[in-house]
Amino acid sequence: MPGVVEASPSRVRLGDLTTLKVGGPAELWLVESDADLAAATLEPYRVLGAGSNLLVADAGVPERVVRLGRSFATLEAMNGAPDVWLGAATPLPGLVRRAQRVGLSGLEGLLGVPAVVGGAVAMNAGTRFGQLSDTLREVEVFVDGAREVLPADAIGLGYRRSALPPGAIVTRVRLALTPSTPERVQHAMDAVDAARAGQPKVKSAGCAFKNPAGDSAGRLIDAAGLKGLRVGDAMIAHEHANFIINLGAASAADVVALIEAVRARVTVPLELEWRRWGFPGGERAFPGTTPEPRGAGADRRPAR
Ligand code: FAD
Ligand code: EPU
Fold this sequence. Notes:
Layout (H helix, E strand, L loop, with lengths): L8 E5 L11 E7 L2 H7 L4 E4 L5 E3 L7 E5 L14 E5 L4 H10 L2 E2 L11 H7 L2 E2 L2 E2 L4 E8 L2 E6 L17 E8 L1 E2 L2 H15 L20 H7 L6 E2 L2 E3 L7 E3 L5 H14 L9 E3 L4 H4 L19
Parallel strand pairs: 2-5, 3-5, 4-17
Antiparallel strand pairs: 1-2, 6-12, 7-13, 8-9, 10-11, 10-12, 14-15, 15-16
The site of uridine-diphosphate-2(N-acetylglucosaminyl) butyric acid has 17 residues, from helix 4 and helix 5.
């Protein structure tokens, strides 16, 4: 069809597309339309958001990596109406700022989460000040070669988890925000900002482990005396013990070894928060890890 840019694959180092900056090669399919999505998903695939919650293996992944392009980023839709549809490639930081400027409340708790909307749905991103599921009402997904709309309560959202249908690519979301004032929203954001002040600002993928019920993984790792523990260029951050940081040239093998060292020294079982890509020995590579939830970042297969 004239005017339609067809998705064309390129070979990339996935680490360059993640915030931890670790991980090997893959075939990247940048998509801008449903035709692109249909073409890209004809072979096994995974979906990449902003890469801020991913540990990618040094060998990379054999599946195609699909990423939504700019035509899926529609921040301008946030113009003051409390009920809004947004594209899944919209970066969360700009969205949170825009909501503040137009005086809409509900996204303050997501301040500082460096995701795009699709990844924030898949992980149900949040802080103790609020999570995406608080405002998420509907999710449009591309699955089985077509788009369909699912109610938010049909996708199994919980603490840092979702259960999207296998292979589903989130394309748009409907959020229901609450009319407020820019001043009040800013006030709420200041509290979130203060709570995040102690987090490291260098290469990481956010908190490595989920908090066990009633406790904090960071507190437990700190209490075990592990701040500064290092394997290669992967290190437990001095600022916050639940952040594994990349000092420069960390490999995925370094990061995995550090995770195992932490688990060996903390008596409470710690579940990884990150999605893991390209680890064939999955559970053996990550002892104590619960299986990937259905559809949420596990290997994606072609829809048909
Ligand atoms: P990615 O990391 O690219 O992918 C994560 C998962 O989402 C993968 O399984 C991927 O397949 C899936 N996915 C991505 N896009 C789509 C799509 N369109 N459709 C279907 N599935 C998709 N998280 C928090 O919850 N709270 C925090 O406070 C927080 N702070 C952080 C601070 C820092 C400095 C960093 C680096 C990370 C932090 N994180 C935090 C982790 C991370 O930002 C979140 O988990 C975020 O939701 C991941 O979104 P992403 O777009 O980067 O997804
Ligand atoms: N603590 C320590 N030592 C540390 C880190 C923390 O003793 O090295 C203690 C703190 O003093 C505090 C408690 O542990 O008493 C909790 O720490 P913090 O307030 O930093 O919160 P957290 O539970 O470690 C959670 C989320 C973060 C989110 C913040 C802010 C998880 C796994 N982590 O951290 O989310 O930004 O709250 O609300 O739920 C993420 O998910 O990637 C993430 C960064």
